[in-house]
Design goal:
alpha/beta; 7-stranded mixed sheet; 11 strands; 29% helix
């Protein structure tokens, strides 16, 4: 589970934190060239008017806005009410609601699901639960598009890795003026858990994102994954 620690060493409730940074998040993180490239790569795979869920949609930009502009039907969820308000303003034709991804269930199966920099608050067990939920949500031959940080790109010491080497816990990261302790999958870990859930990875790439100084965040080597739901997994 991600743990937020303020500058005075006290714990920060996750929901309160994201609510407090909602207005600043888009200006800090909405201009990632790697993410914009990834969106164009993903769009090239989708059929017209695809039903797409943006999990942890944040402010709606640039993911939901870009997808909606291309004529896709967008649903979005986020745990933060202020983020949902911003998403509704950014994509008036979208369907956005406050929801926890771990308990949310869509009304129908989807052609694609995006989880973009929205998995940091999850434990290893919860990440694996999400892979099973994605498998139920996405139609056969549909797509799963993930942006995360790979554990090895943060260079944790060996003792931070789990026994199977597929994830690491307690990795400290500076984010929006706070220290965040993260659980991150390795690249191999993502391959293993997605294949178990019935996804075939089609494409991966990495891009270094350098936030503005005002963001008070450290550089991120972002890891991009496009996976396809196979037809044979039960």
């Amino acid at each position: 589970m991600a743990k937020l620690i303020s500058s005075d060493g006290s714990a920060v409730p996750t929901l309160d934190f994201y609510d407090s940074v909602a207005a600043d998040y888009e200006s800090a993180y909405g201009h990632s060239a790697g993410l914009l490239k990834f969106l164009q790569k993903s769009l090239s795979l989708f059929k017209p008017a695809s039903k797409i869920l943006d999990v942890g949609c944040g402010t709606g930009a640039p993911v939901a806005t870009t997808l909606a502009r291309e004529g896709h039907k967008i649903t979005g969820i986020d745990i933060t009410p202020s983020m949902i308000e911003l998403s509704r303003a950014a994509v008036p034709d979208g369907d956005f609601e406050v929801a926890d991804m771990l308990v949310y269930e869509p009304k129908e199966q989807l052609d694609a699901v995006f989880n973009v920099l929205s998995l940091f608050a999850l434990s290893r067990q919860e990440l694996e639960i999400m892979t099973q939920k994605w498998a139920k949500w996405v139609v056969a031959d549909g797509f799963l598009c993930i942006v995360a940080l790979a554990a090895e790109s943060c260079h944790p010491a060996q003792e931070f890795y789990n026994a199977d080497g597929l994830s690491a816990e307690g990795i400290e990261f500076q984010f929006m003026g706070n220290t965040v302790q993260l659980t991150l999958m390795t690249k191999e870990g993502w391959r293993v858990v997605l294949e178990r859930a019935g996804f075939d990875i089609l494409h991966t790439e990495e891009h270094l994102f350098v936030p503005s100084p005002e963001a008070k965040s450290q550089n991120e080597m972002q890891y991009f994954i496009i996976a396809k739901r196979n037809q044979h997994h039960i």
